[in-house]
TrEMBL record:
Pfam families: SIS. One of its GO terms (biological process) is carbohydrate derivative metabolic process. This is Glutamine--fructose-6-phosphate aminotransferase. Residues 25-176, 189-317 form the SIS domain. The lineage of its organism: Bacteria, Pseudomonadati, Pseudomonadota, Alphaproteobacteria, Hyphomicrobiales. GO terms for molecular function: carbohydrate derivative binding; transaminase activity. InterPro entries: GlmS/AgaS_SIS (IPR035466), GlmS/FrlB_SIS (IPR035490), SIS_dom (IPR001347), SIS_dom_sf (IPR046348). It comes from the Bacteria. The keyword Ribonucleoprotein does not apply. The keyword Transferase applies. Keywords: Aminotransferase, Repeat, Transferase.
Amino acid sequence: MAREIAEIPAATKSLLAQFGEIAAIAESIRKSKRHFIVICGRGSSGHVGVYLRYLFETRLGLLVSAAAPSVVTAYRRPSDMRHVIFIVISQSGRSPDLVTATRLAREYGALTIALVNEVDSPVAAEAELVLPVRAGREHAVAATKTVALSMVAGAQLIAALTDDQDLTQALDRLPQRLTAALACDWSAWGKRLHTAPAAFVIGRGYGFGPAREIALKLTETMQIPALGYSAAELRHGPRAAVTPATPVLVLRQNDEAAATVDDLVYDLVEQNETVFAAGGPAGTLPWIGDDHPICDPIAMLLPAYIAIERATRQRGLDPDKPRHLSKVTHTL
C-alpha cells in the first residue's frame, strides 16, 4: 500500500498523456446527445462515482444517478436506458454484478463506458467504450493508486467535454502537486485514530467522494467504524454521534462549497470536538495550498492514505491484507 501510494504522481503523469482515448470518448458522448448519466461502482469505485457525479452535474449540467446492480441481478428488472450514458467504474473489472449490469445496460440501449484498470477484464469487454486508468498492477487489497487515477481520468474527460483550459492546465500541474502532497505529514490525525471507537471524514462537493473514500480506507485497514458525510449532511442527524473521542477529518477545497465547510469546522472547534482540517484558513494539517478545486481533493487523498497506512501498522495490523477482504469481490 505504501509503495503504491508513492507511485501515484508518476502514474498520473503517464495517464495524462492519453489524449487520444479521452478525446474519442468525449466525442462519442457528444454525438450520443444523451443527457442522463448512470454511474455503477462498488466500494472505492463507488466513491470515484460520487466524485464524477459532481463533475458531470456542475460542469455539464447533466443529471446523474447511482446504479443499483441488484435491480437487474436480484430483482431481474432491467430499465429502459435508451437515453442514458452508463459509466461502470471498476479496478479489476471482474465483479459479476458489475459485469451483468453493464451487459444489460448496453442491451437496453445505454451508451456504455468502462472506467477500468484492467482493460482485458469482463467488464471492459461488455462496454462499448473503455477509458483505461493505467495504474499498473495494484497488489494491496485496499485500493489507493487506482482510486486516485480513476478520479484523474474522470477529470480529464470533463476537461475534454467542456474544453476547460483552466482545468486542463491544473491537471498538467497535478503530478507535481501530488508529489508535494506526499510530503504532507498528517500523522497527528493518524495518532488520534489509534484509540478512537469511530471516526468521521467530512467533505462537500468535489471533496465528498474523497471524504467517503478515506472513511472506507479507515474501516478496511484499521477496522474502525468510519463514516464519510457532506458538511451539510453531518448537521442532519450524524452530528449527535460526534464526540471528542471520535476524530473528525475535514477536507476543504477553495470553491463555492468552502464557506459551509469553514462554518462547520468553526462550530466543531467551538464545541471542543477533535477536528483535523485540511485546506482553508481553519486548516490545522500541513497542506500545499489551494489550486483548482476539482484537483485538490484528489491530492488530499495521498497524505490521508499515508497516515492510514502508518497508523494501521502501528496498531499491529497489516494494511496490505485486511481481514475478510480480497482484491476481487464476487457479489451478484
